[in-house]
Amino acid sequence: MQPTRFAGRTAVVTGAARGIGLACARRFAEEGASVALVDLPGSDGAAQAERLAAEGHTARFYPCDVTDRPAVNGTFDKIAAELGVPDVLHANAGILRGSDFPDTTEEEWNAVLTGNLTSVFLCGQAAARLMISARRPGAIVNTASIAVLLTAPEGAAYSASKGGVAALTRAMALSLARHGIRVNAIGPGTVATEMMAPALAHQELADQILSRTPLGRYARPEDIAGVVAFLAGDDAAYLTGQTLYIDGGRLALNYTTTARASAGRP
């Protein structure tokens, strides 16, 4: 924790009412940023912003459907007017839905692609437009997933959407580098959040995930927030166009065995 790392800066976090987004919003606030918590109307975003403000941080809630371009542009303009031009964007909002590939409907496909990929595109454009207009460098962190590289039969739409986020991140990084704007992504593994709770309630699935996670536990939202803060901060000043996987070692594991059985092997 660096209490002044983001002092004088404005950070925007989407999907900030709970889970990873809330942990990241709190991390930015605790490190000195003025934080805009963006989430759907009716979410817990307002209460969470009030809680941060009561602790002495500068935090405001901005209700917004991040899949709606006019709403996104209007929200970012309002943030710039009230808190300042964003120095940091964490485009984190997304949805988790899945069906076996033959059963995936066009409605589900479109909903997942829009919720996970179009939202990142729209928010990234809105933030970049403000940064460029103000001639300010900045950092954008997009939330991808371990599902970019590790998928499942029911993961067609989700993996495609998160793979798109990783590819979009690289394109954004190339386009925005000349403006001093860095763009990276995170690829979380299994994180113990409210959104994941229904899936992890199935003991067989939970045991399978943990058996394939060398560090032997799920990620906490705070684990993800630490990496996001690093990518958004000056310590990552020469890092752009990358996706960092925060997975407890799952992608490093030889999947012919379990994490426990492979312990101690070269």
UniProtKB/TrEMBL annotation:
SMART domains: PKS_KR. InterPro entries: KR_dom, NAD(P)-bd_dom_sf, Sc_DH/Rdtase_CS, SDR_fam. GO terms for biological process: fatty acid biosynthetic process. Transmembrane segments: none annotated. NCBIfam families: PRK07231.1 (NF005559). Belongs to the short-chain dehydrogenases/reductases (SDR) family. This is NAD(P)-dependent dehydrogenase (Short-subunit alcohol dehydrogenase family).
